[in-house]
Amino acid sequence: MKTNLKKTYLIICLLTILVINSCTSSEQEIQVTNANIALSGWKTVSFDVDEKFILKNKGHLDEVYDEYVGILIDDGLDINQSHWLKPTYGNENIIWTLNSSIGSQKIISLQKSKSMFEESGYKYLNGGIKSGNTSWEYSGYSTPPTSSDTSTFKSYIFVCQKNNGVSVFYWGNNNIDQPQKMNEVTEILKQLSDNC
Question: How confident is the model at residue 175 (pLDDT cuts 50, 70, 90)?
């Protein structure tokens, strides 16, 4: 009897902790979601999909929705807690989200595939960027240049893991290889650093 009482008490305590943690987490998420993140010359893009569409097409959103964003959603990107920015002119994208684990998993996958990128002539990069007191880990690649096109496609993932953490995904055509020298990237990391 005492054992059952102890088990019941333990379960109640654990459930209470989970409820308190989820409330705290929701409050933090609301603060970050409402953060005013803006880049000069860039605009907010609507995801224009709902949960019904996502559930129906789960597993092949890269084919029916968007090659890059669809994969992120399939891998767990919560569009309700994410923001998508594009420049008014140009082919670049930045998505930031309140989830550091999705970015971390993507970085691990990239690191595992490093040799395949290099064999294909892609340039693989990883390292860290410091923004204020916040350290961001990054990993990414750029396509090999072609004789007909001087701009190359680049894709980078940035993660900070303080508190809830934040993941930032950048992809597009940019002539600068080093993400530390990409003004838009460093600006968005700077603005998000306080919310990590």
Answer: confident
Q: Are 95 and 169 in contact (CB under 8 A)?
A: yes
Q: Whole-structure pTM over 0.90, yes or no?
A: no
Contact 186, 158 (CB under 8 A): no
Q: How many helices (H) and strands (E) does the chain have?
A: 7, 7
Provide the mean pLDDT of the chain: 80
Length of the chain: 196
Rounded distance, CA 68 to CA 133, Å?
Answer: 30
CB-hemisphere CA count at 13 Å for 146?
A: 5
pLDDT at 140 (0 to 100): 94
- What is the sign of the dihedral through the CA atoms of 32, 64, 104 and 152? negative
Contact (CB, 8 A) for 188 and 39: yes
